[in-house]
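Data deposition worksheet. Section B asks for the primary sequence of the deposited chain exactly as it was used as input, without tags or linkers unless they were present during the calculation. Section C holds the resulting structure in token form. Section D is free text for depositor observations; keep each observation to a single sentence. Incomplete worksheets are returned to the depositor.
Section A, Depositor: J.P.
Section B:
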Amino acid sequence: MSSAKLELAASVAELRSATHRPLVSIVYHSGAGHTAQMAHAVARGVVSGGEATVAEHRIVDEDFKGSRWLNEEVLRQLDESDAIILGSPTYMGSVSAQLKAFMDATSSRCPQRKWVDKIAAAFTVSAHPSGDKLNTLVTCSVFAMQHGMLWVGVAEGSSLGIFFGAAGRAINEPPSAMPSAEDKLTGELLGRRVAKLTARLRSSVAGSAQVAAPLDRGERDMLRPCRA
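Section C:
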């Protein structure tokens, strides 16, 4: 599975219909490769129970022009996903600039409510046991709530005592060595839980699913903070 391109190509609908399983997309930035290792662990968890399919997109320089996100294809593909899991290293106590640029680029979807009731989750890696990782995960959850998504944390927690999402440690070790096997297991458990809950949600609305109606002008005005 490629970590450079979201492996939905032009066939998101085909992928979902062919497998009859919900699609979980993982969008992440990784500076040195450690967060990428967590992303792959989360992806393994998603497919481990056979309840969902997975696609990864590692945010790369080609997604931007200057500091502005320009990869509209990825955003359209995420529109078709049933769940979105975000990943970022914790830099200076928060998400990386690259992930934040991606988040900001989704603002036009906020008034349209395109991501309402999708499952959302997140994972992060930083050097210290705390390292303000919780703030990174909370930042991701606030972003998800802006879109009306449903947040999922980890049920089992981790050696770091964090339940809000999956968290790992890495300093200057090679990505093959860190995050630890235990941290990556936490990532797998998060992916597995997201897949299970996404499949359950999709099953519960099968045959009666309703798409959120577009907002009228008055409602859009109320949501101006999404696009200010």
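Section D:
Confidence is low (pLDDT under 50) at residues 1-10.
The longest helix spans residues 181-204.
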